Every structure is written in C-alpha cells, then in structure tokens.
Amino acid sequence: MCIRPAGAHRGYGRGVLKVENLTKVFGQVRAVDDLTFDVRPGVVTGFLGPNGAGKSTTMRMMLGLDRPTAGTATIDGRPYRELDHPLRQVGALLDAAWIHPNRSARSHLRWMAASNGIPARRVAEVIDLVGLSSVAAKRAGGFSLGMKQRLGLAGALLGDPHTLLFDEPVNGLDPEGIVWIRGFMRHLAAEGRTVLVSSHLLTEMSLTADHLVVIGQGRLIADSSVTDFTSRATSSVRVRSPQLPDLHRVLAEAGLAVVPGATPDGRPTLSITDVSTEQVGDIAGRAGIVLHELTSTSASLEEVFMSMTAGAVQYQGGGPPAPGPVHPGQWGQGGRQ
C-alpha cells in the first residue's frame, strides 16, 4: 500500500510543539510536574514513561482537552484552542474508540471533514491510505480494535496536518499492521512533519523513534536521541574459549573486570565491562589463546528504560505467586479466592 499522503509534496518545516513548565494537579495528585521539552519536525519522537507517568494527561493538555494548572503547551507558538483550522494543523489519535458506533467509517470522516471545511474527496484518500476501503460503508461499532486504530489514524491525517500526536497507535494491530504503521510514521517524519508517539512497546519504539522524551511521575527523566539514551548503559564484551581459565587470568592481569557466565545452552563464558572487542582480542592474541566467540553487547532500550524509571513506577507487581497446584474451585468468578 502506498503511504504517501496527499500533501506529501509540500515539504513541512513548521510544527514545533513546545511544552514549558507544564503542570497538572488533580486534587492531591500532581499528574504532570513542571514539564519542559520540545518536539521538532523531521523526526519521530517517542514519548515514554511507566503507567501513571502523565503521558496521556500531557497529550490532552497539548490538545486543549485538559486545562493546565500551570505552564503552557503550544504548536508554532500558539495554544491548540487558538489555531484557526485545528485539523489542518494538528492531527491526533488519543482514543481509537472515540467513534459513533452506528456511523460508517466514511460517514464518521465526512462529519469530521465538514467541521473543518475539508473537501469531501479527502475522505476517500485517507480511507484508502489506511487500508479501510473495503469496509468504508460498514458501521464502525463492529470494527475490531485494529480497524478502529486505522480509522483513528485516517481522522488524524484528514486535514493533511504538519503536526501529529499518537497515543498507543499500535494497540490491536496485527504484526503486518505494526510494521505498516512503523513505516508510515517514519515516512511522515521524513516529509518534515512533527510526529509524537506515546507507546509502552519499547522494542517497537527502538525501531520507530529517532528521539525520546521519557517521563516518570509527571517529571522529565530524559530528552535525547535513542542512541544517546541507550549509550547510558554499561556495555560489555562476551567471550568464549577452550582455554577459558588462561583467558580469565590474562584479562585480570590486564586490570579488566571479568565476570564468569554461561550461554543459554550452558557453555561457559566470560563477560568484561567497559572494554572493546579489539582490546580483548589483542590480549588473547598476545597470549596465544584461541577464541570461539567475541561479542560486544549493549543494553536494549527496554533495559535502560527500566533502569532509569525504576524509582518512578506507580504500579508494581508483587512478584510471582508461590508455586503449588491449582485445585478445582480455587478460582472463582471474581478472580482468585
């Protein structure tokens, strides 16, 4: 499917989304706490944080759906509510279920288009763009979650906007749909649009985002490129050898920190932190030691994220349940008894 939107030829340079000292208090809860960051055109910016971090509240304030307690959120220097033609300037997908269940996909988008003076022909374009042409006349209430996500994406693209906000856009999509939307977002950013994506799928974000804004308990934790973010973790080198004790000795004599380990299938290894594969290979070569594996490893986005947000998690599991047989009657209608 072609993912090129109708306005792809424009060349976008606008759409700086700026959050300055943004704060939102609900009663005794400080959901967003003095948050400041920019989202710039031309890159996909991932908006990450644990559950309850304040991501959705921040995005709602960007769109004027929640009023800030303090601070501002602006697009090209203006609050969303002051934009002349909102759908032509900002597209958003925050809740895929926000559709009238008895309207068809086509009717839903025609209603949105009419509200902002968008030509009706654009409806057919975005329906085709997101792959819903075969179900355009069907009631949206009967759509799967993945189909609703595609319809929500069509609504976000309806006005061919320069700024796009997506909250968990891959929820409900099958693997093909996830790969498709990943490429779609990167294509939109490559056109010079501003793309902000909130997601809890960290592996997917590592494949989609160029830049990350990470928050926890409403406060900024990181604002950096994906590469800089993951480089904060300590890298290591894993090595296997039939002369492992000798290798351990010469590495330790070289002043390196060596930790014994094993591969998943039980073969013994050594891990050395803060060192390159070239250094380890040179030391082994000078000692005449044969190597069967010499691998550089670095922490994944998920591992770095978990480490950096460990103190900002609102909801944590209590660990695995104690082992033991499950007997008939142990589980009731309301859960475990």
What does this structure look like?
The chain has 337 residues and is α/β, with parallel strands linked by helices. It folds into 2 domains: 214 residues, Rossmann fold; 62 residues, ACT domain (Alpha-Beta Plaits, 2-Layer Sandwich), CATH 3.30.70. It is 30% helix and 25% strand. Helix 3 crosses helix 4 and helix 4 packs across helix 5. The N terminus and C terminus are likely disordered.
Write a brief structural summary.
Helices cover 30% and strands 25% of the residues. By secondary structure, the protein is α/β, with parallel strands linked by helices.
Labels describing this entry:
alpha/beta; four-stranded antiparallel beta sheet; disordered C terminus; six-stranded mixed beta sheet; Rossmann fold; disordered N terminus; 337 residues; Alpha-Beta Plaits; 11 helices; 2 domains; ABC_transporter-like_ATP-bd
- Envelope shape: elongated
State the share of residues found in helices, binned by percent. Answer: 25-40%
The CATH architecture of the largest domain comes to: 3-Layer(aba) Sandwich
- Secondary structural class: alpha/beta
Order of helices and strands: EEEHEHEHHHEHEHEEHEHEEHEHEE
Q: What is the number of independent domains?
A: 2
Briefly note the CATH topology name of the largest domain.
Rossmann fold
Provide mean pLDDT, rounded: 85
Please identify which CATH superfamily of the largest domain we are dealing with: P-loop containing nucleotide triphosphate hydrolases
Strand content: 15-25%
Radius of gyration: 25 Å
CATH class of the largest domain: Alpha Beta
- Structure annotation, total helices: 11
Domain ABC transporter: 17-242
Keywords: ATP-binding, Hydrolase, Nucleotide-binding, Transport
Family: Belongs to the ABC transporter superfamily.
EC number: 3.6.3.-
